[in-house]
Amino acid sequence: MTTIPPPAPMLPVPLPPFAPFLLVPTFQQTQQEARAALLAGAEAPLSPMIRRHQERVLSRVCNVLVSTGIRCQRLYVLEVAGPIPRVKIGRSNDPWVRIRQHVTEMNRYQYGLVDAHVTDPVDDLASITRAEVEAHTWMGKHYKPITREEFRDADYEFAMLCADIAVQLHQPQESIE
Q1: What is the per-residue pLDDT for 94?
Q2: What are the CA-CA distances from residue 46 to residues 53, 54, 110, 147, 150 (Å)?
Q3: Distances (CA, A) of 47 to 14, 109, 116, 143
Q4: Which H or E element spans position 99?
């Protein structure tokens, strides 16, 4: 009968020095910081913190577009912070490209994207055009327009609601047969 030798004694594994757990700030935290910095008058080029927050916003928009269709007629709502905060409601058949163009342009003038929303897609160009006009009309009753699409010191949540409802009201109706 063969005997099995006893196992070798186990040596303790040295532990690495304690490293504090790094907390990733929430979207709302980075949004609040970016908004405060932009309202205070950010300098060009915008800080890495503001650019990182914009990338988080764009990532959220990209996820929505990838899951529901990238090249579809939609309304988009942008919350823009800067010397004169504003909300922009526009339409595009390629909102990903259009929103990125807006971000590039606004960054040149020390404005930054704080939040963005895209509505459900609409296949009919006439319907999305009517929805855009309707959303602009509702916004214009409550906020001072800067341009046809931009409203000074406007509430972003209200703008999202206007855009979503306008799209639903002007969605082509299918006949029930």
Answers
A1: 95
A2: 11, 11, 7, 24, 22
A3: 40, 13, 20, 30
A4: helix 95-108
- As a whole number of angstroms, the distance between CA 177 and CA 161 comes to 31
How do residues 124-156 score in pLDDT, each as one tens digit? 899 999 999 999 999 999 999 999 999 999 999
What confidence tens digit (pLDDT) does each residue in 39-86 have?
A: 998 887 899 999 999 999 999 999 999 999 888 999 999 999 999 999
Rg of the chain in Å (alpha carbons): 24
89 pairs with which residues across the strands? Answer: 77
How is residue 108 annotated by DSSP? Answer: H
User: By three-state DSSP, how is residue 148 classified?
Assistant: coil
Question: Does residue 46 contact residue 110 with C-beta atoms inside 8 Å?
Answer: yes
What whole-number distance in Å separates Cα of residue 119 and Cα of residue 97?
15
The single-letter DSSP state of residue 155 is -
